[in-house]
Amino acid sequence: MNIILASTSTLFGGEYLVYLKEELIKLYEGIDEIVFIPFARPSGISYDDYTAKAQSFFDIINIKVKGLQEFDNKIEALNNAKGYFTGGGNTFLLVKTLHEEGLMNVLKKNVEEGKPYLGCSAGSNIGGQNMKTTNDMPIVYPPSFDCMGLVPFNINPHYLDPNPDLKHNGETRETRIKEFLTQNELKVVGLREGNWIRRIGDKITVEGKELTRIFEKNKEPYEIEAGSEL
Amino acid sequence: MNIILASTSTLFGGEYLVYLKEELIKLYEGIDEIVFIPFARPSGISYDDYTAKAQSFFDIINIKVKGLQEFDNKIEALNNAKGYFTGGGNTFLLVKTLHEEGLMNVLKKNVEEGKPYLGCSAGSNIGGQNMKTTNDMPIVYPPSFDCMGLVPFNINPHYLDPNPDLKHNGETRETRIKEFLTQNELKVVGLREGNWIRRIGDKITVEGKELTRIFEKNKEPYEIEAGSEL
């Protein structure tokens, strides 16, 4: 496999995907066109507008972006594609649409066969085993929480450390992930913004400037450095 | 109906439920025993420990608390109860358990017949039409997102205003609720901590020290004052 699962598409103060530019040139080496999966629709924008946003970055590295919504036969479009990018937004919307249109397993099969895949945020969640560690609001009811399982763990994108100054009694991210571990036996990778997971063949590493926080059942959470294998 | 749906159980620096004491004396007037629904299990604590925590407050106002887990026949226990309290925690766990044990509609029927109900956080979410505006992590997959619909809208507990200083690209609460409104036509009440919804008969008001933020489809969000009818 040849995949990047990124915590976020955009660093604070930065432009869309630009911090990943060198990585994406390598990911998509030899490819001049990819299919974009816009179903997560951040803030409810249209599929076409979201695809145009993706194209605005991919123009810089000379890759043409085709939105999956443009195809009458989406299964065929995924099977014919040379590579993929799934943008962020709402994971419930994304997973519901992929399952209802029978696309989750088609995408999985193609990526497992070696076609390059980039996911950001919600698009990274679907690379995990299931979507049970998303931060998103359950605005729609998907027929299943199962995802592609491109990596043998779950991802928590936009991982955020507790803020000791906050006078608020909502749960911290760490509390939420620990609640997940009371119900599930699965490693969770807390990906801080600016970090990403890189899989090349069977080798899976975490990359980026920040440490990455790992949560496992019956263990204290711990931190690993960029380059560490997962 | 006679219900309180509170944003939180505990104010910053305060003790469990104490800020609601005078309201709860009125809510449960004439009642000396209630059934506690502990299924949301915050941080994975046991049902018995959670029930003991509820009892620690209700001792102050001379009400005995029986945990629903103590009964072999939970449907009968709900039907025989004089009043209810559902504690906070994870809404997905709470809703899954209530649906799987066939309790959601039993509780609804009893509350609609006039028995007093208190919900905090996840326990307030289930008073809304559905759980699609919870903040919680989807750590388990419920058979449905439908809730009791004790009020004709949805609740977002622990409503949190955007923090302009945060260098983080996760969605704000307002963005999430606006995404909900792209997919659903239903009013959402953003309940800041310290606020609660009070229903007496057919009259529904919002109460507490803070303004309350209301979200409706195709409208700018707006604020209402304590005492306003919903």
Descriptive notes:
2 copies of one chain form a homodimer. In chain A, strand 8 (195-200) and strand 9 (203-208) form a beta hairpin. Chain A has a single domain (2-224), classed as Rossmann fold, CATH 3.40.50. The first copy, chain A, starts with a strand and ends in a 6-residue tail after the last strand. In chain A, the strands form 2 sheets. Chain A has a 7-stranded mixed beta sheet with strand order 3-2-4-5-1-8-9. In chain A, strands 6-7-10-11 form a 4-stranded mixed beta sheet. Chain A has helices spanning 21-27, 47-58, 74-80, 91-100, 104-112, 122-125, 173-183, and strands at residues 2-6, 33-37, 64-67, 84-86, 117-120, 154-159, 188-192, 195-200, 203-208, 212-215, 222-224. The first copy, chain A, has 230 residues and is α/β, with parallel strands linked by helices. Helix content of chain A is 26%, strand content 22%. The first copy, chain A, is built from 7 helices and 11 strands. Chain A binds chain B through residues 8-13, 41-44, 89-90, 92-93, 131-141, 144-145, 158, 160, 167-171, 175-180, 182-184, 193, and chain B through 8-13, 41-44, 89-90, 92-93, 131-141, 144-145, 158, 160, 167-171, 175-180, 182-184, 193. Chains A, B: Keywords: Dipeptidase, Hydrolase, Protease, Serine protease. Chains A, B: It is an enzyme of class 3 (hydrolase). Chains A, B: This is Dipeptidase PepE. Chains A, B: Belongs to the peptidase S51 family. Chains A, B: It comes from Chryseobacterium oryctis.
